Amino acid sequence: MGILSTRDWRPIILNSLAVKVAELDKSLVTPSLEVFALLLTEREALDPGPLPKNVLFALICGAAKAGWTEVTKHLLALQAPLEDPIRFQGDPICGDRAASQLEKPADPPLLHTCRGGFHEIAELLLNSGAKIQGREICTLSKGFSSSAGKGYLGIVRMLLDAGMDPNQGYPLPVVLTIELEHHEMYSLLVERGANIRAPEVWSEAMKVIEKDGLLSMANLLQSGITTVERIAGDTGGIECLPWIQYPI
């Protein structure tokens, strides 16, 4: 076997360099800004220039999901994108995506932080231009439902203020607030336009109230409804549970 020329060695060297850079990209997922700066300096020695957008996106998603406020601020200062910039190739941190998901953008950082209940980070992202409309609305409606279902009133209010439709999301946010017996959030959603009188919403609400015997929520729904029938609960539930018929 002959001696490899410089040209023959070049692909091996470049491949080894790419592997090292990819490993450093994974290590950048850290709650410590000091560690982040040290690793970034090491990365820049191997691959000068700014971090690629797909790496920044993966990093800000990780920070938003973990609740790392200062790291999120730093990544925003580095111009981390708030929507998935890469839709047709694998990500060095998140891994390759299945072929069936190539057209589907990755979940945005705002969705991750809504699920975690990180109010300050959600505010940072919204103030930095995170969108809740357009192609992201279906994705973010999941975060809206998740926030409602976990009782994150501040985040629910913030999303509504930013333009979120109170009737978006499944499970239905207003039904989740009934299940939680969260009077304040229920009132907020109705005030902002949640359509509790829609037949499918009403049906789901009644199922929850009947199942869990939520007397306080039944009384709350009764407000403004004139058709009320009281029935005796003889199945082990709360007696005289108010049964609110669908408003005519």
TrEMBL record:
SUPFAM superfamilies attached to this UniProt entry: Ankyrin repeat (SSF48403)
Protein name, per record: Uncharacterized protein
